[in-house]
Write a structure and sequence with these properties.
single chain, about 100 residues, Rossmann fold, 5 strands, about 30% helix
Length: about 100
Amino acid sequence: ERPINTANKEVLITLGGSEQKILKEIVKILENKNVNLHIISPYTPKNPPKNTHYYSPLNPLEFSSLMKSCACAISAAGQTLYELALSQTPSLILP
C-alpha cells in the first residue's frame, strides 16, 4: 500500500498530445499554487510557468519513476490509467 505524503507537492499531468487546450487550462489554474507540475507532453510552451517541468519522450522506467515520485496525477482515461492504478497513485481521471 502506498502511503500518503502530505508534504509532497509534485503533480503529474499526462493527457495525450491531442488535449493541449485542456492542458493549458489546467496549468493556468495550478500555475500560482504551491505545487510542482510534471507534464508529459510533446509540446513545450515558449515561456512555461516556473512551477512546470515538461517531459517528452520518457521511456517506461523513467515514466514509472516519475509517477511514483508524484503525490497525485491528472490523466486522460487511456492506457496510463492502468499504470496509475498499479503504482497506487491517487488520480483525477478526465474522460
